[in-house]
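Readers of this paper often ask what the protein records in our data store actually look like. This encoding replaces a full spatial description with a residue-level series of whole-number codes. For reference, a complete record is included directly beneath this paragraph.
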Amino acid sequence: MNQATPPTKTAANVVEIAKLWSVFHTPGHDAVIHQNLDLSIQQGEFMSIVGGSGSGKTVLLRQILGLETPSRGSVTVLGQPASQLGAEGAASRVGMLFQHGALFSAFTVLENIAFPLRELRTLPAPLIRDVAMVKLQMVGLHPSHAHKMPADLSGGMVKRVALARALIMDPPLLLLDEPTAGLDPDSADEFCLLLRSLHRELGLTVVMVTHDLDTLFELSTRIAVVADKRILVSGAPREVMSNPHPFIHDFFLGERGQRASVLLGEPIKLT
């Protein structure tokens, strides 16, 4: 079993998190969410982060994106402190798919996808439109959807539009927050197929937070478990599931464990 260890700095590490503390200060109380947390993510991985409610999974995504600063420790993305991503345009280096899509309700589909490029103010409008149309079709939507409004879209289409927007700048790193949440099983399966295809074809490094086991096993090349305020363990799905920690047992091998065993081909034995 590969226990979580401090990340080794190599050129292949897209994300390096070292000795990270996340502390939220409230009147009369400091809540420690992460304590000496270490994690490295290599180029081309599809890393999934799982953990219990309140374990700070989405906080980690926001720190990788540079939207939040850890209380202590460091978060390095593509060789640069994550806190500096905003200064140079995070969208060109990191794409983010938020759980509910976060589309602008007053913008058309095409305007939503094109928004990060328009904000740069460096490209002519016709070129921006052409690039946005390419991304629209890349995520499996028909050109006729370009002028629809978000209110006219199904949940699955909203996810695809948000994904196209996340990819508009061709970032090498993509962050996903519960990408299949709210989708029916068929739509979730189709979206997983799309994500897997784009991961392979574009050579993306992907970091995903999800609680859905089907999505987890369909997409992950490695899983990191956040428990006890740190990365308890990281490794291939079968390796992680064999860890006897109570959270891992309950999460993977409780009532949902039969499904996990079917997906991985045989029963999982604890080490």
Observations:
- The first strand starts at residue 13 and ends at 26.
- Strands lie at 13-26, 29-42, 46-51, 72-77, 80-81, 94-97, 173-177, 205-209, 222-227, 230-235.
- Residues 185-202 form the longest helix (18 residues).
